[in-house]
């Protein structure tokens, strides 16, 4: 792959002996492959040193626990986990502090727990998905810090762990989150934490970068601006901004920001992207990744400053004719071992949680033969299918292009070394061809010649019709979030009675629901509506469609609800069903001889209790009219059945009254009320 211009960074330089040239010479490894150039032992040892390469998106899937990891750097928007700096538990609550970047970031865009996007309320409580906020109880809270120069320690961690974490543990310059996870009840653990302890990751807008176009420092996805920062950062080229030729970089940033049309008809920037790496990553690989993603060519100018050719076609201003050329070699490049039929692509797909996905194949890998001839453009900084497809087209053109090697007269006023494209008129081999220079340009002042290698490219090589050339992106893996057990269907509660010891009856609740699976069990919960002593519950046998409660207090109102259990996890509760427990639903007989005699502020009531085994008492009512409806209960008198009984009710107001007496059983079920007739209270 290093012999493909689109798969590596290039440099066009006439003087590599300067400090700037030495810093940029990592690009020479590609020139070596094109032109047979040799590099010094220092360059080669650095280029092939076994350092961590640019991390793939998958490398940031899990939070890292290790002693003092290298600082992570985030450019653009990425999704990644972080590095643990604190993990302790107290009182059943675990506190996690995780660092995502070793610098100030623009901000946290989204939070994920095990690839489930979560929603936070104003206090940082995870309120969605609902299983993290079960039954109104919050279990996970997330707070964050942007990595400001002077940050603030997480107060609750300081409060609970003062001996190991103090207000001095601010995390200056470290973008981090604090996640607080509360212990769930054992029976609800798998419902609340279906994937065990949450694994946190975030979509993050990374570093604020200097934009040479306006002199501001802000967040950006512009790949040219990222490359400028990388060359001037301690983690990259270690150059200063004064070493850079800023007009070139401003133009490259503007090219990256140009609008292009994608296959859906929408617009996007030409070269946007993002990536993250560590301070100890292979910075040569990081630079090549950025250069490839924006099709940049970094070079050293005659004044020693570092310029850049943007990823665009520029009409050549230098034309080499037959009279200018001393030596000309042409390789039409038709050998199947060096050409390809198609180009594959791999990119970071934001629509698939920033995982690496395959792009549509550009070209046809099988044309009249069974042997697949493809190459792959694999770039973690590319975050658009249209973007990777445009790079695939460029790779296809360059890989199959005719190659030239030229030695020509050196003209200091038209130095080939500082141009990406030139024209060559060398009939009959090349009548008028555009050449893209692919090697380091060598100038010999002894015989005043210039030598270089290149490829023949069309002037419309950057043209791209998304409607016909972009193709269909590969299908993304659909992540199915964990689902709860199904909520019971057609839940109902009926109060039943049964005879217990001594011949008396007792009430219980019988809950029923629709059958769904023999693997499911159901939990019925009940408690008193008022003066509750706490809920009680019972679990059904697997495959059953009913379950009964324990005995209920006679005449008491209860609320009932039901939920499903499967594999150690439960569904949500159903809504409450309100029922009154009745041990004896059969009323006793009516009283006989109901009568009332008025007196001074009182009345004497008399009756004969019915001869009913379930008789328990009578209720005495008084009304101002001869109607039981609207009457007021003034007394309850208990007694045995089939006996004459009476009760004096005091505290009555003067006037004509009407009395009513009804017999009830032990469950309070009444017989028909019997009228006493009128009486006068004096």
Question: Care to describe what's here?
Answer:
The protein is mainly β. Among the domains are: 82-198, no CATH class; 342-399; 492-580, Immunoglobulins (Immunoglobulin-like); 592-681, Immunoglobulin-like (Sandwich), CATH 2.60.40. The chain has ten helices and 42 strands. Helix 6 (223-231) runs antiparallel to helix 7. It is elongated. The N and C termini lie far apart (115 Å). Mean pLDDT is 88; it is low at 1-49.
Mean pLDDT: 88
Largest sheet: 7 strands, mixed
Structural class: mainly beta
What is the CA-atom radius of gyration, in angstroms?
A: 42 Å
Helical content (DSSP H or I, runs of 4+) = 10-25%
Strand content: 35-45%
Q: Regarding quaternary structure, how should these chains be classified?
A: single chain
Report the principal-axis shape: elongated
Unreliable residue runs = 1-49
Q: How many helix segments? A: 10
């Amino acid at each position: 792959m290093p012999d493909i211009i689109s798969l590596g960074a290039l440099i066009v330089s006439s003087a590599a002996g300067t400090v700037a040239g030495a810093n940029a010479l990592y690009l020479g490894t590609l020139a070596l492959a094109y032109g047979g150039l040799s590099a010094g032992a220092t360059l080669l040892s650095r280029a092939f040193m076994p350092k961590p390469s640019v991390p793939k998106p998958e490398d940031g899937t899990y939070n890292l626990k290790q002693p003092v990891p290298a600082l992570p750097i985030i450019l653009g928007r990425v999704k990644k986990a972080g590095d643990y700096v604190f993990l302790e538990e107290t009182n059943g609550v675990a506190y996690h502090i995780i660092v995502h970047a070793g610098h100030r970031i623009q901000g946290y865009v989204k939070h994920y727990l095990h690839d489930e996007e979560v929603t936070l309320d104003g206090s940082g409580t995870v309120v969605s998905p609902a299983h993290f906020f079960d039954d109104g109880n919050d279990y996970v809270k997330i707070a964050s810090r942007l990595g400001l120069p002077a940050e603030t320690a997480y107060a609750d961690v300081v409060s609970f762990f003062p001996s190991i974490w103090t207000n001095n543990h601010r995390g200056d310059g470290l973008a981090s989150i604090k996640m607080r996870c509360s212990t769930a009840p054992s029976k609800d653990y798998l419902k609340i934490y279906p994937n065990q302890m949450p694994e946190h990751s975030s979509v993050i807008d990374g570093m604020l970068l200097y934009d040479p176009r306006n002199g501001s420092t802000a967040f950006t996805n512009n790949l040219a601006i990222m490359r400028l920062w990388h060359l001037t950062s301690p983690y990259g080229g270690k150059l200063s901004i004064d070493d850079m030729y800023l007009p070139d970089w401003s133009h490259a940033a503007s090219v990256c920001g140009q609008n292009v049309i994608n296959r859906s008809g929408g617009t996007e920037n030409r070269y946007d992207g993002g990536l993250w790496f560590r301070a100890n990553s292979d910075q040569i690989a990081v630079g090549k990744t950025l250069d490839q993603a924006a099709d940049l060519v970094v070079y050293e100018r005659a004044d020693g400053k570092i310029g850049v050719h943007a990823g665009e076609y520029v009409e050549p201003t230098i034309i080499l004719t037959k009279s200018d050329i001393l030596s000309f070699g042409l390789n039409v490049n038709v050998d199947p071992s060096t050409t390809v039929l198609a180009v594959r692509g791999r990119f970071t797909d934001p629509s698939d949680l920033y995982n690496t996905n395959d792009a549509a194949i550009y070209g046809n890998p099988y044309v009249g033969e069974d042997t697949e001839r493809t190459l792959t453009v694999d770039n973690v900084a590319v975050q658009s299918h249209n973007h990777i497809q445009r790079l695939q087209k460029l790779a296809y053109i360059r890989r199959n292009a005719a190659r030239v090697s030229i030695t020509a007269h050196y003209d200091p006023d038209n130095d080939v070394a500082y141009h990406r494209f030139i024209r060559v008129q060398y009939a009959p081999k090349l009548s008028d061809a555009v050449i893209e220079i692919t090697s380091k340009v060598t100038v010999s002042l002894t015989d005043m010649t210039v030598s270089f290698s290149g490829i023949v490219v069309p002037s419309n090589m950057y043209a791209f019709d998304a409607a016909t050339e972009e193709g269909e992106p590969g299908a993304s893996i659909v992540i199915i979030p964990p689902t709860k057990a199904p909520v019971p269907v057609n839940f109902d509660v009926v109060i039943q009675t049964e005879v217990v010891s001594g011949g008396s009856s007792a009430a219980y609740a019988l809950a029923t629901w629709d059958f769904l699976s023999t693997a499911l069990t159901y939990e019925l919960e009940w408690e008193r509506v008022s003066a509750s002593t706490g809920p009680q519950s019972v679990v059904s046998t697997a495959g059953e469609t009913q379950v009964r409660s324990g005995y209920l207090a006679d005449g008491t109102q209860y609320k009932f609800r039901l939920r499903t259990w499967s594999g150690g996890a439960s569904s949500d509760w159903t809504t409450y069903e309100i029922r009154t427990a009745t041990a004896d639903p059969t009323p006793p007989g009516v009283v006989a001889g109901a009568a009332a005699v008025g007196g001074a502020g009182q009345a004497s009531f008399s009756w004969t209790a019915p001869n009913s085994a379930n008789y328990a008492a009578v209720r005495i009512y008084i009304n101002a009219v001869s109607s039981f409806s609207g009457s007021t209960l003034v007394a309850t008198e208990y007694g045995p059945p089939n006996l004459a009984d009476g009760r004096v009710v005091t505290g009555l107001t003067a006037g004509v009254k009407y009395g009513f007496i009804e017999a009830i059983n032990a469950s309070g079920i009444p017989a028909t009320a019997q009228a006493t007739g009128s009486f006068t209270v004096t």
